[in-house]
């Protein structure tokens, strides 16, 4: 009990003397990061005696590419803490695509995309927004930037930009001998989902050759392939996105493979017995 009383007295002296300050709860971010709300909330301005914080918390909105709905696509909402719902605040939007690609409801702060967007054409837009007092026309918040990112859909098939390919491998090569590596590119976003994750397979050319589904490396799959029996092979390769899953898009290319000759045939006489030629005297 004595120890507890001493500890309490010590803490009272430290706090009362200003040597320690009670921990204050950290201000919560006013930006909803989840897709359910899609709200950027502008905090109130502070007095000039206090440390000035940013006008709002920066983050990204997302809009789906190739949207074909009958109504403009909802993107998100801007909201100021000074907006009490009395119609005294006006929201403005400027910057990349403002008015032509994106519109804002001046009263509610709702942002919509008014045309279909292509991520491969432009992956994101940088805009600026502000809250203004309707009567005084003075800004309630400092103008700040935010990003609207175009979210990818799987609308591009893999393409072999270097195909068709030509390769060669020595005849009689062992199983697993390296032939060639093919590569397909996919214009979809590699950081989002599996839209750009490509898997390779052979549609034509088995059982003579195999391909690594991840790297696209082609190797021999049969031993003792003889050039004198068959010299040319045409292999059809497929690259499929979505990790090869059902519904993925696919592209194909051909690989023309030639077996090159090795010294595997000894000289042979056409006949086993020869007779001296007969000469006729004139």
TrEMBL record:
| Keyword field | Calcium, Cleavage on pair of basic residues, Membrane, Repeat, Signal
The family database entries (Gene3D superfamilies) matched by this protein are listed as:
Cadherins
Name the PROSITE patterns for this protein.
CADHERIN_1, CADHERIN_2
PANTHER family reported for this sequence = CADHERIN-12, CADHERIN-23
SUPFAM superfamilies for the chain: Cadherin-like
GO terms under biological process: adherens junction organization; calcium-dependent cell-cell adhesion via plasma membrane cell adhesion molecules; cell migration; cell morphogenesis; cell-cell adhesion mediated by cadherin; cell-cell junction assembly; homophilic cell adhesion via plasma membrane adhesion molecules
State the signal peptide span.
Answer: 1-25
Please name the GO terms that the record assigns under molecular function. beta-catenin binding; cadherin binding; calcium ion binding
Which top-level group of life is the source organism from? Eukaryota
Output this protein's name: Cadherin 12
Record bears the keyword Nucleus: no
Against Pfam families, the record matches this protein to: Cadherin (PF00028)
| Localization in the cell | Membrane
Cited function:
Cadherins are calcium-dependent cell adhesion proteins. They preferentially interact with themselves in a homophilic manner in connecting cells; cadherins may thus contribute to the sorting of heterogeneous cell types.
The record's annotation in InterPro entries points to: Cadherin, Cadherin-like_dom, Cadherin-like_sf, Cadherin_CS
| SMART domains reported for this sequence | CA
| Gene Ontology CC: one annotated term | adherens junction
| Domain Cadherin positions | 80-160, 161-269
Biological classification of the source: Eukaryota, Metazoa, Chordata, Craniata, Vertebrata
């Amino acid at each position: 009990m004595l120890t507890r009383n001493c500890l309490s007295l010590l803490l009272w002296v430290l706090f009362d003397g200003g040597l320690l300050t009670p921990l204050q709860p950290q201000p919560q971010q006013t930006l909803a990061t989840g897709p359910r709300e899609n709200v950027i909330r502008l905090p109130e301005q502070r007095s000039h005696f206090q440390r000035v914080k940013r006008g709002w918390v920066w983050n990204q909105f997302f809009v789906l590419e190739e949207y074909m709905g009958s109504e403009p696509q909802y993107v998100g909402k801007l909201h100021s803490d000074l907006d009490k719902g009395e119609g005294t605040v006006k929201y403005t939007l400027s910057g990349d695509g403002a008015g032509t690609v994106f519109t804002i409801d001046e009263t509610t702060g709702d942002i919509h995309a008014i045309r279909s967007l292509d991520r491969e054409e432009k992956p994101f837009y940088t805009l600026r927004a502000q809250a203004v007092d309707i009567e005084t026309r003075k800004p309630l918040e400092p103008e700040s930037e935010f990003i609207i990112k175009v979210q990818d859909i799987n609308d591009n098939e893999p393409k072999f930009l270097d195909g068709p390919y030509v390769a060669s491998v020595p005849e009689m090569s062992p199983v697993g001998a390296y032939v060639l590596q093919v590569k397909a590119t996919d214009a979809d976003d590699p950081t989002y989902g599996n839209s750009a994750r490509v898997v390779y397979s052979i549609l034509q050319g088995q059982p003579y050759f195999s391909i690594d589904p991840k790297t696209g490396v082609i190797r021999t799959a049969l031993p003792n392939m003889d050039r004198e029996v068959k010299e040319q092979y045409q292999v059809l390769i497929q690259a499929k996105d979505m990790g090869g899953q059902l519904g993925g898009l696919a592209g194909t290319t051909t690989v023309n493979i030639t077996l090159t000759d090795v010294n595997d045939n000894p000289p042979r006489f056409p006949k086993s017995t020869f007779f001296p030629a007969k000469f006729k005297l004139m």
